[in-house]
Every structure is written in C-alpha cells, then in structure tokens.
Amino acid sequence: MAKRIITAAITGSIHTPSMSPYLPITPDQIADEAVRAHDAGAAVAHIHARNPETGQPSANPDLYAEIAGKIKSRCNIILCITTGGGLGMSTQERVQTIPRLKPELASFNFGSMNFALFHALETYKDLEQPWEKQYLGMTEDFILPNTFKTLREFAEVFAENGTQPELEVYDLGMLNNLAFMLERGHLKRPVYIQFVFGILGGMPATPENLLFMHRTAKEAVGEFTWSVCAAGRHQFRMCTLSILLGGNARVGLEDNLYLEKGVKARSNAEQVEKIVRIGREFGVEPATPDEARRILNLKGLENVSF
Questions:
Q1: How far apart are CA 123 and CA 222, in angstroms?
Q2: Residue 149 region, left (φ>0) first, then alpha (ψ -120 to 50), else beta?
Q3: What is the pLDDT of residue 1?
Q4: Is there a contact between 40 and 272 (Cβ–Cβ < 8 Å)?
C-alpha cells in the first residue's frame, strides 16, 4: 500500500481539561479540530464527546450528533465514533451512538482490561474541575469491561447499522478474542485492527511488542488492515514504525498532549502535520478520506444518519 491512513483522535476521554488548555471541549471546538486535522492530512477523525460546560466525557447522543453534523457540513473526513466512551459508562451508553448515527467506522474495544489513569494525579495536582480528581482516581480500582457477551452484542449492533468496526487491541489475549469471534461468525471480514500501546494495564509501547503483536495477529487472524496508536511520548516513534512496516497511524490529543519534548501541541493538526512529514521522508503519502474508504471497505458518507 503506497498510502497510509492517518487518524486524528480529537479529544478522547483520558486527558482532563487541567492537563492542557488546547484540549477541545465543546462541539464547535471538536468540530473545528477535526476539520483542521482533515486539512493537515488526516483521513479519519476519532470522536468522543464532552460536556461543554465541564469538559467531562459525555455519552449524550445529541452531542455526538451535533459534532458529527458540524464536521460533515465542512469536510468529508471519515468519522470513527467511540464505543469505548468514558471510563465508568455503561455498555448501553457506550454503544447507543451507533444506531443513532450509523457511522461508517467506530471503535470496538476487544477485551476487558485494567484501564488505569490514577497515576496521573502524581503529576497533575491543581485540577480545575471537581470531577477530574475522582475520575482519574477511581481507575485504581477499575476494569474496562468487554465480555464475550458484550462483544457479541456490540458486533450485532455494528452489523445492523453497516458500521465497520475498528478493533482496538491492547494486549495479546484480545487477539485470541478476535480470532474466536471470527470463527463463530460474530465478526466478518475485512478486519481492521488498531494496536494500542502504552496504557497502564495494557501492552508497553516498544518496537518489539509491535512486531510480536503483528506477527501473532497474522497467525491468528490471517489478512487484516491495521493501525497503531500509542500513549504519550511513545506516540510518534510507534506510529513511524507502523508506517515503515506498512501499517497506518493514529495521532491526536486523545493519546498525547505534546508535539515534542516539553512542547504541548496547540492542535491535533500539528500532530497530523508532523506524522505526515515523517511519512513523506520515507516516500509515503497520506490517504485522502475517499482513498481510506476504499482501503477499509466503508459504506460511504451518503449512508450515515447525521
């Protein structure tokens, strides 16, 4: 593949407003950031919603619809809607945006894990919003649940709405889950895997782990399209390795607040521009949204409900 799909994860549900003044919060801010990322070379924008008053991650489907509509009116970027949601949301809250928006693409976490953010409180002590300390601190005793039952139910919702799953794989056991769900017919090909590294509770972000996970996925799953995202300071080196190995890359303020050591990214577009520049140094061009649609076999923007 001569081109690579660049995804911008616009705001996520990991970082809190106190961590960066550049984290987009309101629907307008999130939409603006998605359009800037598109203009910088991103083919996909990964979307979470936040309470526009407090910045807390939100499951409100009206917010997702507002964000999606604002972006669609301005550019043709692919929207990858989260079903990971925010930490502590119910499985119903996490999946409800899929039948509402019928997006082309949505994230699909493929196993349960200790999703830990509590250690961030050691760095960020002066928090602006009352919810931030509790939200981060509760993850010391938190499991992000994705049981085989909910995997099956989520897969049914995706299929019913023509939404392609982006399978988020944080650890080796999730590849075993994926192979099982394919074997039982709950998932259909083509398969799109995103390897996620650097979250406390998941796989460390090392080149060796990426090579191991990719090789194991080939043995367990067969053919698939894939991407890489990595938390914090690991973002660009792991995404560069993915590009060199023939994979795609996800950057954005959900995963990393910095552009380089000691310099906070002022927008998602800055990170997109950086990974596009790195790719071009190796003769790789970013895919356009329509090229990415063909690569991922998506249903097209005319078939969504926003």
A1: 42
A2: alpha
A3: 57
A4: yes
> 226 - beta bridge partners?
193
Each of the 306 residues of the chain gets a pLDDT tens digit; together they read 589 999 999 999 999 999 999 999 999 999 999 999 999 999 999 999 999 999 999 999 999 999 999 999 999 999 999 999 999 999 999 999 999 999 999 999 999 999 999 999 999 999 999 999 999 999 999 999 999 999 999 999 999 999 999 999 999 999 999 999 999 999 999 999 999 999 999 999 999 999 999 999 999 999 999 999 999 999 999 999 999 999 999 999 999 999 999 999 999 999 999 999 999 999 999 999 999 999 999 999 999 999
User: Which residue is listed with tokens 């250690």?
Assistant: 119
Strand spans (E) along 114-262: 164-169, 192-197, 225-230, 248-251, 258-260
User: What residue spans define the domains of the chain?
Assistant: 3-303
Q: Which residues contact 12 (CB under 8 A, 6 or more apart)?
A: 46, 48, 252, 253, 254, 255
- Architecture of the domain defined by 3-303: Alpha-Beta Barrel (3.20)
Alpha-carbon distance of 13 to 90, in angstroms, equals: 14
> Distance between CA 99 and CA 133 in Å, rounded?
33
> Which tokens go with 282?
């190796």
Q: What's the full length of the chain, in residues?
A: 306
Structure tokens at 297: 């076999």
Instruction: Judge contact between 82 and 47, C-beta under 8 A.
Output: yes
Sign of CA dihedral 156, 165, 173, 196: negative
pTM (predicted TM-score): 0.97
